[in-house]
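Appendix C: a fully annotated inverse folding record. The material below is reproduced so that readers can follow the format used throughout the book. The structure is listed first as tokens, followed by the designed sequence.
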């Protein structure tokens, strides 16, 4: 297992990413199968293919403003466009010639990539990392208007899994997790 591999639910045409929102954004997104106001196109929006990292981020839907977790199927071509048009969120001398070059690229890139420790079902850190992809500008417009195939609210499933974890029914909880595998380009 590599330290940085994209793990996700995907098929030949789509990849599933997760986002957590307050009801005012999530409910209309599911209804219209598109992000609409009050979702803001001019803000960076982060998509995450790791279900358990999303659970860590939103506290199993318990954090204020993150009560609704959406499973969003997007076109693989959109995901791959995002990855190819991204800049990592930190300076890496093995990739960038200088901090100035990295800062310039970061400022101009419509996509940011960040790698954070992946989580297990208890939300403890694992030795490998999960990718977070921040979309801004052109990337947000493409995401909202071109890439989205389906938006589902999976908040109840998240809460069910969390309750099973709290009851120490780990095997039952694990059986309900989305089946992620290493994403192949």
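Designed amino acids, in order:
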């Amino acid at each position: 297992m590599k330290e940085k591999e994209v793990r996700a639910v995907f098929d030949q045409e789509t990849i599933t990413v997760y986002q957590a929102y307050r009801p005012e954004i999530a409910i209309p997104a599911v209804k219209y199968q598109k992000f609409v106001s009050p979702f803001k196109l001019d803000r960076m929006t982060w998509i995450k293919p790791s279900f358990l990292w999303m659970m860590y981020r939103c506290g199993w839907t318990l954090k204020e403003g993150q009560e609704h977790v959406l499973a969003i199927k997007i076109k693989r071509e959109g995901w791959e466009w995002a990855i190819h048009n991204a800049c990592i969120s930190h300076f890496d001398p093995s990739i960038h010639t200088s901090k100035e070059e990295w800062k310039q690229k970061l400022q101009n890139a419509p996509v940011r990539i960040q790698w954070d420790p992946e989580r297990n079902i208890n939300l403890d850190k694992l030795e490998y990392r999960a990718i977070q992809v921040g979309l801004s500008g052109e990337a947000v417009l493409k995401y909202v208007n071109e890439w989205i195939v389906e938006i589902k609210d999976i908040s109840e499933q998240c809460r069910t899994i969390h309750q099973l974890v709290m009851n120490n029914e780990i095997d039952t909880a694990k059986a309900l997790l989305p089946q992620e595998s290493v994403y192949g380009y």
